[in-house]
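Summary for the steering committee. The consortium agreed at its last meeting that each partner would contribute one worked example illustrating the joint modelling workflow. Our contribution is presented below. We chose a case with several input lines so that the handling of multiple components could be demonstrated. No manual editing was applied between input and output; the record is shown as generated.
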Amino acid sequence: MSKDRKTSTGSGILTKIVRNQCFIPLIALLLLVAFNLIADPGFFKITLADNSAGNPVLSGFLVTILDSGSELAILAIGMTLVTAASGGQDISVGAAVAIAGSVLLRVLCGSNSRPETLQAPIIVAFLVSCLVAMLFGAFNGVLVAYFNIQPMIATLILYTAGRSIAAWVNNNELPVISEPSFKYFGEFIPGIPIPTPFFIAVACMIVIGLVLKFTDLRLYTEAVGINQDSARLNGLDPKVVKVLSFVILGVCVAVVGLIKVSRISTINYSVIAKDIEMDAILAVALGGNALSGGKFNMAASIIGAYVIQFLTTTLYKFHVQSDALPAYKAVVVIILVVLSAPKVREWLAGLSKRSMKKEAV
Amino acid sequence: MKRYSGIFVVVLLACAAGGWMFFGCVPDEKAPSQDTMQDEEDYIVIGLSQIGSESDWRNANTGSFRSEFTAENGYYLLFEDAQQKQENQLKAVRDLILQEVDYIILDPIVETGWDTVLMEAKDAGIPVILVDRQIVVEDEDLYTCWVGSDFREEGRRAGQWLADYLESQGRREEQIRIVTLQGTLDSSAQIGRTMGFQDVLSAHGNWEMLERRSGEFTQAKGQEVMRDLLQSHKEIDVLISENDNMTFGAIEAIESAGRTCGPDGDIIVISFDAVRTAIQFMQEGKINADFECNPLLGPKVSKIIEELEAGERVEKIQYIEEQYFDTSMDLEKILEERTY
Amino acid sequence: MKKKKFSLKDLTDTNLLLTITIVVFFLMYIGAILFQGGGFTKPQTFFNILNANAALIILSCGLSLVMITGGIDISVGGVTALISMCCAVYLDFHGGNVSTSLLMALGIGLAFGIFQGFLVAYLDIQPFIITLAGMFFARGLTTIVNTKPFNVANEAFTKLKLTRVIVPGMGAPNRRGVYVDAYVELGVVVAILVVIVMFCFLRWTKLGRSFYAVGGNHQSALMLGINVKRTRFISHVLCGLLAGIGGFVYFLHVGSGSAAHATGAEMDAIASSIIGGTMLTGGVGNIVGTFFGVLSLGTIQNIVSSAGLDEAWWSGITRAVMLCLFLVIQSVVMARKKKA
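What follows is the complete predicted structure of the assembly.
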């Protein structure tokens, strides 16, 4: 209801926000870059050297950001859609990544957890894990759409059970893939010095970009997110749209699962993609998208994801313990949500108007 | 409204019945759990409180107990997974006492805080056999004995191996820069291996320990920390990694940073645990030497229990036999015999 | 079938959900006694469940309060870990005393409650996102305070930790035939007091009733002259205070500081509240139900581990299934309400 009021109080504010969407993450990025330039310009050094397989590869902090940020960017795509359609977030993505990765390994390894050769082509394994992740996405979606459960609570179920299911899929064994080509997805393809996850992320962005451009997905999602009753009156089925958004997130999860598992050629059920849901939600928030649903800006979310990774890597660089990272990120989130709260924004707008008046005088 | 309430009763009964069938049937199928409790002559009931299933080593360790304490051997094993929490282990031990098991095998996750619960076990007349990690208690009589690895010796042997290896490479006088990936800080394995290696390190003036960082015994963390170490130290000659999982992560990091490791590479890698995968890595020439931490404690513990059953006294501290592997050995053959 | 004669249609939503929870809990426990026997026949098993879950009961009460007003707080687990660590560091490294550490615990809990409550109630920010940030902040801060987990050695504290309240007439002979008194820890007494106080508060005070009114329909609550913002704020403050008490009880139970403490406690607390019949949409809920919700979860875990379903994943999956079941029941109840 507050949303209705917001749209009616003035399209001026709204257009301003839309215009500013990419602005917030970019400013954050600039701040981080400036900080690093002052603290240690060595941060930006990129070196080209041969890795063990004899391929020339790039390494350095920026490459790390590009590499790890890509996983986040892929998840941010799905999370943005879920946020926009359902007005809530999926907190089970980390657990779902564990399941997808586990299924992938299970199909690749068959019954033997240390196979000499792959038991199935990678593409088949990926499709199976994709299917499983979509099913789990659909499960979340159905709980949200048909049983009217708040998204965070509905996905709490999978959050609780996900890693257990992942361990169960492989009988709690830790399969290891020795096939070198499996590593291409998480590391480098021979001859290409840029980490593969970046290309995968770009592919995902292109696909989602085309889908948003040539289908009515954006319209439907936003309509449902803004007001699902009026969407229904206009002949849209909000339930289907919501489930669809969760299924799309499922695909993103499967892709990230592939990258994560490929990186280490094995899996650790309790650690893989830990706390990634926080980062993904943060990326959406940083992109200036309303966490209560409605309009969204995909590009801003994706930039947001890389900015988050930039922040993480910067903190690592300064030897912040990885377990302490959440505290710093939490501060960023709190500042962001407080700044984007309608009340605070109104107050700020009032403040700036007043100061402008003063200047005019 | 009435129809709905009917549905509720049905749902409720169905869920209760489901619960009964599910939980009730399983033990009946698996093993005669109540009967074992009552007819103690038939089976020796063992309660095992395990830390978790965080690594291959742990799984091999659990597997060793499982395959040793089978019904065929005259045992019934109750297994409790503590999922890395002492509170869960304390509760598990208390539950085992209430279930009146004959022996408790405890792999303690931390060293302190066991006095009360061990006292309760002692009062109930249940011998407690500690495995793997050690504990600190005021009264050593609270537990029967401890079985596990001599971590300090492992560390010392690793240091000695490195000294010999450098000698054979003609690098005895060279400046050797070492980094260590430590295990979870304050765990017995971390303390023992760090100290054991330190014993040898301090005897060599030309060895320099650049940095020790914790990789918490996990692959992901090992990779992350190693990537960091590689970025902050340009010259690294030796990597000591206090378990295999971290080593796997570290090798990933080394390779993706464009460096090489192993006998033909520029970083000497010494690892601990010697799981099967690590031997395979050794075959591929990525690890130089691996010091075994034998997880197959089952047979030894079962022997101790036999002795206790016969009324014999057992030794308080019992080290398990351990070996090491390096690339000069016949790895093919070792691999064939390796079960974990 | 007796239930039916009692006429379900007279039941309010609160009572219906409460009845389901209590019946499920008793069926489960009786089932465990009948089919598993062993430890379940001894009352101490039940008291052990209480001992292990005392803190969770208190945290869940706090969550129920917030959820009744239509909000949510997922920071409680993180706050618990932070409190344990701060108290542990204060007691052991700074030689503090126990009563000051209790004040500290309450202070930390209140600080989180007030801050989050202010943002949620007065700035209209979604409670989920702000408390998610609160959770990560608390967790991160815990490692900043101290990285290593350690057990507290402070004497006054250990004495308090080991204090046991004997439950008369509930003891049982142990394996040696010696009669052992049944006991609960101090935390259980605190938890039961909290349950009683909160039950009375919600039932008989004006403020307590206004919680339901705000959660049920905040616009009509507004028309009734209830200060909606203040009520929501107070619910968060109370939840924070209870997190403080719960955190200290947890600390008293585990006696150590660790960043890994109470992982997933927030999820368990939410699940307990839901199983206990608290509606996510607000306005419906009962502290007694929450109490039984916690006990149900604890019992499930005990059943799973003593049924030989030893693999750790079972407890995760069974909990999730139970949560899912109750969520669906709630959703159906909601549908019924709408139709009625």
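Confidence is low (pLDDT under 50) at residues 1-8 of chain C. Chain C has one domain: 45-156+191-339.
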